[in-house]
Amino acid sequence: MFNWLFARHHGGKFLLRIEDTDKARSTKEAIDAILDGMNWLGLNWDGHEYYQSQFWARHAEVAHRLLERGAAYRCYMTQVELAEQRETAQRERRPFRINSPWRDVTAEQGDKPFVIRLKAPREGETVIDDRVQGRVTVQNVELDDFVLLRSDGTPTYMLAVVVDDHDMGVTHVIRGDDHLNNAFRQLVIINAMGWPEPVYAHVPLIHGQDGAKLSKRHGALGVDSYRDELGFLPEAIGNYLLRLGWGHGDDEIISREQAIEWFDLDHVGKSPSRFDFKKLENLNGHYIREADDGRLSDLVAAKLGISGTQKEQLRRAMPELKSRANTIGQLTESAAFLFSTRPLDVDEQASALLTPESREVLRAAHAKLQALADWEIASLEAAVREVAEGLGVKLGKLAQPLRAALTGRTTSPGIFDVLALLGRDESLARIADQMEPIE
């Protein structure tokens, strides 16, 4: 999102590259989920999407060029030798870094399998002026001779991402700060090839409310889960993620147009933000109340499996329904009573309201409502209030069992709206169902 906003703010290009060097994880389903999620969030990319695997020949070419320049070497170490070095490092309680005996050997070793490793500098330091983290320095002795090209000739991510960024003309890389260490390693390749360095901006990761690394229990789900299972709108997700790591004064509700106009790297926070699910839900409620009734009706109708006249009934009810919902799921649940079949499945809380006394109240309300000449909200309200006064009870004492009889639940839109939305025949029939205990 930050890359997209930065590119749009500056009139640049936002490129999408599927980094599929790991074939086991890069399934069609995984790739489709990325494209679907990006499109749903409105993060449109310029041109077609790129696939890293299409450029493996180019990656291998650069690896061999580094070899020719003395910036890389053929390493013939076996897995057993690597394991021995790793065990020694663990025993000596020091970080494991490859110490290859082939680092300074230029002669080829016949048909023996080998990998191509980067010859990382061992003296001096590397400095990055990061647009978020500031000036960061690493001693080159901390860098490792990582693999560029595997023994089967395929490139590693560390090589491929650098080559692709250069060839695609990438000028700015905005990514999670878990990649900051990778930037120092990737700069070795960039400098060895004599390529221009990109501008880096490493953004802090998102944490849970407890300050721990974000996980599924905190809400770290796929984008499709927020849409399909939890019922969030894309504009709410976008607004929330934007404010989670970036700010513009005290503004909380920020449109996409405003975000493009205002976005800069100077106001990206340096500390990890905490994911507050309740805050996201409340923000989503704001966007639901702002959303077009037809759009919301389409989303809810798909979940309820309704169409035609029922969908039109839902659209008429939407102004009242959406005022009480924070998610599409809540909206769907609150709308379900409109299309329930009789006799209603009354939940436990609503059933507790249908006492013998309240059934008598329902009988009085039924008689009064049945006699109404028109079924409009004003007439319905006047009739219900008149019944309450005649029985000497507060309106709530009548509204509660009436709501239970009409919806099977204890929460719903206003009782007069419910009566109007259900219509005369359905309302009277549902009330009549609850006037006598069901055997």
UniProtKB/TrEMBL annotation:
Could you list this entry's UniProt keywords, alphabetically sorted.
Answer: Aminoacyl-tRNA synthetase, ATP-binding, Cytoplasm, Ligase, Nucleotide-binding, Protein biosynthesis
Q: Which Pfam families match?
A: Anticodon_2, tRNA-synt_1c
Give start and end of each Aminoacyl-tRNA synthetase class I anticodon-binding domain.
304-433
Assigned EC number:
6.1.1.17
Reactions it catalyzes: tRNA(Glu) + L-glutamate + ATP = L-glutamyl-tRNA(Glu) + AMP + diphosphate
Q: What class of enzyme is it?
A: ligase
Location, primary (coarse class): cytoplasm
List, alphabetically, the InterPro entries matched: aa-tRNA-synth_I_cd-bd (IPR045462), aa-tRNA-synth_I_codon-bd_sub2 (IPR020751), aa_tRNA-synth_I_cd-bd_sf (IPR008925), Glu-tRNA-ligase_bac/mito (IPR004527), Glu/Gln-tRNA-synth (IPR000924), Glu/Gln-tRNA-synth_Ib_cat-dom (IPR020058), GluQ/Sye (IPR049940), GluRS_core (IPR033910)
Q: Where is this motif: 'KMSKS' region?
A: 213-217
Q: Report a single Gene Ontology molecular function.
A: ligase activity
What highest taxon heads this organism's lineage? Bacteria
Q: Which positions are annotated as binding ATP?
A: 216
> Which part of the chain is the Glutamyl/glutaminyl-tRNA synthetase class Ib catalytic domain?
1-281
Entry function = Catalyzes the attachment of glutamate to tRNA(Glu) in a two-step reaction: glutamate is first activated by ATP to form Glu-AMP and then transferred to the acceptor end of tRNA(Glu).
**What is stated as this protein's family in its record?**
Belongs to the class-I aminoacyl-tRNA synthetase family. Glutamate--tRNA ligase type 1 subfamily.
Q: How does it assemble?
A: Monomer.
Name of protein: Glutamate--tRNA ligase
Organism of origin is Sphingomonas limnosediminicola
